[in-house]
What does this fold into?
Amino acid sequence: MPKSMRSVAPGSTVRSVLAGMLAAALLLAGGPAAAQDSRSPISELRRLAEIMGGAHYLRITCAGRTDQTWRRMMVEFLDAEAPAEGARRAELVRAFNTGYTREERSYPFCDDSVRNREARLAGEGRTLAETLRDRYLE
It folds into this structure.
């Protein structure tokens, strides 16, 4: 398998990005106390969903539609953060689709800029997930 399909950024695999995102989601998954917290993470969770949507588009642009890596991550993220149908789940799905559409408009075909953009998004997602994890572990 080509390195570009195994790795989204130098030294980091898609699996490690997923682990960070899911760890943040599991920590934030919501009981009533989390919902009442004045530092509600919903905007950050929306951003994570947008990142996964954008990365999904970029990945399938280069690797083909059978590569569902980022979509699978989103399903796991939804199962952790918004397991029941409802407004929160719908909001996160909309964010995923927004990220997908945004990247689709900017990157119509595969080239090095697409691979670089996917790596940047993965890095942004990892950083955001780690920030959320650290904030809610305090």
